[in-house]
Structures are given as C-alpha cells and as structure tokens.
C-alpha cells in the first residue's frame, strides 16, 4: 500500500528571520512497509511542535557547532525533522513498538515519517492527559531540575507567553514563588497577569533600561531566571541576580535571527554573587517524565494550570506557523495539527 | 603600649590600570589594647595576599554591585582590607582566639590590623604546611568543588602562571587530566611545561584567533575551563567546550581595568552542549579546608606539587606588588611579607 506524503522543505539556507517564501511544500509517494530486520518504523504524525531553535539548523553555517542529531544542519530540499507526536502506522519487526502506539519523538515536518526506532523518545500511555501537553516536559524539567527553585524565591521568566515560559511561570506560582514575566505585547502582559496568575508582567518593547525595570520588579533581587531569549535581557537579569542565583538557558531567540546579538552578562556579578548559568535540553531529563505527567495531571484536573496552545492545521500551515513564532504571533505553545487522533 | 603602624591607602578612585602613584603609605599610632567586652582583636600581619579583584573596589562606581563585606568599596585615604595571614597580638576577652594564634582572615594592608573577630576566616594549626600555602585554598575549592573534574578529562586554565591557575593546573595533572594552560610570556609557557608538568601551554599574546588555537590544543574538546580572565578567552573556551562541560569563573582580570571588555560567550553553545558556567568565592568552601590541607601536604611532601610564590617585602612594597599583577609581572602567587613568622 502506498500513500502520498506531503512534507516541508527549505528552498535554500536562511540567514536571518525566516519568511514563508523560504519554504516549499512537496509531496512524495511513501510505501507503507518497512524492511524486514530493520529498525524502521512509519509514524502517522498527529501534532508537530514548532520550535524556534530550528532556524539555527537552516543556516548555511550552523553556529551551534553541535553533533547532536536533532540539531544537525538541515539540507535545503530535504525533509525537516523535529519533535512531534504521532501514531505508529507500521512497526518494525523487532517488537519494541506496536502498531497504533502513541509516540513522541523526532519525526518529520510531514504527514508521515519514516524513521528509525531510535527517533522515538517516548511511548505515550493512553490517558486523560491531552497528547499535546506532553510537549511541556521541557518547561517542567528546565524549571525544576535545572533551576532547583525553592518556595518563596523570586523567579523571572522571559518570553513568558511562549511555549515554555508560560508553563514555567505557572509551575513557579504553584510552587509558591514570586513570579514576574516579560512578553512583547500588552495583550500578552494582560494574559500573564489576569489568566496565568503571574504576580506581575511587563512589555519589554516599551522599556529602554531593562536593568532598571528588573530592579523595580524585583526589589529583593532575582533568585531564578528562566531564560528563553538571551541578549540584553540576560545581561539585565544577571545584573539583578541574588547570591547563589540560578540562570537556566533554555533558548536564545534574540540571537537566532541576528547572530551579532550576543549577550555580555557581567562576569563580575557572576563571581561575586556565585551565579550559576546552565544550558539544558529536555532530552537529558526523560527520567522525570513520570513526575511531570503526575504533577501536571493533578494541576490540570484541579484547574490550577492552564495550557495555552496555539494550534494551526495541516502540513501546509507549517511555514506560516514557523515564521510567526519569530514575530511573536503565537500565544503559548505553537503546534501544527496534522491529523485527527 | 603603642606602636607606629604603616598602612597603604589609595589617594583617589582608580578607573583603569593602577599606577604606583595612585597609592600612598601612611603611618598612625596604634595602641595595643582592645576595648573590654568588644570583639576587637589586633593582628600582627605576616603575609598579605595581593589579589587583582581589589582594583574593582577602588573604582568610583564599583561594578560588582555587591554587598559582600570584603568586596565593598574602598574609600580613598582609608585603610584597605584584604586577605592576609597574621598572628594574634591582642586577643579580645571573649576567648575565641588566643594571643599568638596564627590566623587567616580579612585584615589590613598594614603592619598591624585592628579588626573584629568575625574578620578571622580561620585559625591555622602550627604545622609543617608553610603558612603562605594556605592561600591556595581558592584554587583547590574552585577546581574540585566547582569544576567537579574526572580523571582523564581535558582541562584548560587561563592565567595559568598566576596565583590560582598554576595550582589548578597542577591539581588537574595530579588527578590524571590532560591540561593546557595559557599565559602572557614565553618564559611562563616554559615554566608551565617544563617545571609544572602541564601537557601543553601557549602564549595568548602571540595568538590572533583564540577559538582556533584552543581547537588545536583540544582536538577532543574541553571538559573543564578554569577561567581567571574572562573576555575573549572565555568566548573561545565556550566555543570549544564538550557536552556537559563546566566553566568555573574565578576571576575576570581582562575586565578589571577595562570595563568595556565584556565577554560574550555564545549561548547557543551553552544550550546545545549543556554547559554550566559558575562563579564562586573561596569563602563558600571553607568546609573543604581540611581536605585541602591533607591532600596538598601529601603532594608537597612527595615533591609532586610546586608552590610558586612571588614574594616582596614590607608594607612599602604593596603598591608596586599590586600594580605589577596587572602587568603580568608576577609568577605564581603574589605575596607581600610584612614580618617574620
């Protein structure tokens, strides 16, 4: 049996902010069978996670210089891989995954993904836990495992209406922290304060002196900074950190479309205040997945956690979805729904 | 009884590199008694540690914005405090320290120090362990406790002929690491390779592209970077770090005399390689003091560790000693000997 498989490619390398015209939707026949003895599986994609870091892979000279498979350069004209949730359509014959298993993994910006079993990060148990919410593990692991927050601490979150930031802020509130977020519009600020329960929030686009504004929102200093943006915001946060403050570097979106926009945090502050700055990937924390599901389920059931998703439909919507996250169009997690569960 | 007490002051705030003419030697009578019921003690200084961080305290606008007592701003015309080793000359009457106790603490750039008992960091046991070597605890704690090195890892040390760097490199070799250091002259490079047993060393002043030179010395990447300098060297090291690499920020000497010289490490590397960048102060690790003494004593007794000190004599020599460390004049730990033990 054979299906037609729509997928997304970049036409050429992208150096700055992406535009929809940089992308192309292609289609190719896919035979729904895998080689006997191989580890190949075919996944029917349900939800594709649209993540800003992918832009780095589209550059001609990937600045991350990494050997991490899912961060490897993307070749123009070829299928793009990324984190997604899908259903096993054709299993390999080694029996590790079965047909119809729900799985999260590194699949393809496409309707169907032909991948190695190793690309499956996790089998998802059928549960009350909505499928797309599994993508929140990055926020959970980054906040609890990297930031090691304590009740009562002062937490600052940038890109606080983004996929990761909004969850981090909510987890922080639920832990009993004082939480301030920044975002790029007044609507987002209102959402953070009125719906998501942040203690305060501000629109960074309206502020000139980020160090002063943070000093105003944090008269007692910042204990934890969850950084999604890098650049001047990271400098301002470091200048306001308390002794033994922790900075987790989840993303550097200010630098993704402008390689010159490096952050220069004052290392004197880092020494005197014994600040710990740490980068991380969700993949390192799959051991906390059960905790994440348990705690998050409980919060959802009692209505104490809001999951903010921004969902568009169909493979054709992937380019505009991706371009949009660099313009701040999305509110919450940007997801493309490819097929019905 | 009364003595004449020579001490050093800065005449005015210092913004850039210090010069000897910025300092003045003063003298004042000191009555050798302390108020009954107070915590005051009088210490006869034996050795004064000359440390680059002090320059930050001499600026009109201390950039470290810290509330740490020993890093607080220095007022022109007034006595300067700093880490030193001395002997209790007059004890307070609360009995915590006795006359003739050997002590390490935050004393004064002077012959005698009238300080609170709280300024004494540690009572030193009379032992075979040379007094000045106690100042090496910063290197020991920073390397073992902050960098958490493993045998076989690749370690890079900047300012490797400096007070801290030379010890870190030697501890790393003794642990079984591959160790490369950088320094500012060919003589220092020779010392590192021929006497201190570094696997390799280079003169950073002769290199244009620090990222490339580090890639050459570390074809398998850097696991641990012990940073004493900040600036471009920190950027180059971060670009060469391995996955889960650790950077300990001990000092930022490149920035001390040029506030514009900030470091802009690529945060994309920090994320993808899950790099941990951490500032520290020796004061946080006084719990490892016994380990430090035990391990270091053993190494010294078997001749496996060289203690490189650069000692000048007398309070009058403090200004030139201090100015010299910014010119790279010192080899190893810079100490001013104020009195005979």
TrEMBL record, chains A, B:
Every Enoyl reductase (ER) domain range: 16-336
Statement: the UniProt record of this protein carries the keyword Transcription: no
Listed InterPro entries: ADH-like_C, ADH_N_2, ER, GroES-like_sf, MDR_fam, NAD(P)-bd_dom_sf
Keywords assigned: Oxidoreductase
GO MF terms held by the record: oxidoreductase activity, acting on the CH-CH group of donors, NAD or NADP as acceptor
SUPFAM superfamilies membership: GroES-like, NAD(P)-binding Rossmann-fold domains
PANTHER family in UniProt: OS06G0602900 PROTEIN, PROSTAGLANDIN REDUCTASE
Name the UniProt record assigns to this protein: 2-alkenal reductase (NADP(+)-dependent) isoform X2
Gene symbol of the encoding locus: LOC107491330
């Amino acid at each position: 049996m054979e299906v037609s498989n729509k997928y997304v490619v970049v036409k050429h390398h992208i150096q700055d902010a992406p535009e929809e015209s940089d992308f192309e939707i292609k289609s190719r026949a896919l035979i729904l069978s895998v080689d006997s003895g191989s580890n190949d599986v075919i996944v029917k994609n349900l939800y594709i996670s649209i993540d800003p870091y992918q832009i780095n892979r589209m550059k001609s000279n990937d600045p991350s210089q990494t050997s991490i498979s899912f961060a490897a350069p993307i070749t123009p004209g070829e299928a793009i891989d990324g984190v997604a949730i899908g259903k096993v359509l054709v299993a390999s014959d080694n029996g590790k995954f079965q047909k119809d298993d729900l799985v999260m993994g590194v699949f393809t910006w496409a309707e169907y993904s032909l991948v190695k079993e190793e690309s499956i990060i996790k089998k998802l148990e059928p549960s009350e836990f909505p499928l797309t919410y599994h993508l929140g593990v990055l926020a959970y692991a980054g906040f609890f495992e990297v930031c090691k927050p304590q009740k009562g601490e002062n937490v600052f979150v940038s890109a606080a209406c983004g996929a990761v930031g909004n969850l981090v802020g909510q987890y922080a509130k639920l832990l009993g922290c004082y939480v301030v977020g920044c975002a790029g519009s007044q609507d987002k600020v209102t959402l953070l304060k009125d719906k998501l329960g942040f203690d305060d929030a501000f629109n960074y686009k309206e502020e000139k002196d980020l160090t002063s504004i943070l000093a105003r929102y944090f008269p007692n200093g910042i204990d934890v900074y969850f950084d999604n943006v890098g650049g001047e915001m990271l400098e301002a946060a470091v200048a306001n950190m308390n002794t033994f403050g922790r900075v987790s570097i989840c993303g550097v979106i200010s630098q993704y479309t402008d390689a010159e926009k490096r952050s220069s945090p004052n290392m004197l502050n880092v020494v005197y205040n014994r600040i710990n700055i740490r980068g991380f990937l969700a993949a390192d924390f799959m051991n906390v997945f059960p905790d994440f599901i348990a705690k998050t389920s409980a919060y959802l059931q009692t209505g104490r956690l809001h999951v903010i998703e921004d969902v568009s439909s169909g493979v054709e919507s992937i380019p505009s979805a991706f371009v949009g996250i660099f313009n701040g169009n999305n509110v919450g997690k940007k997801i493309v729904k490819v097929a019905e569960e």
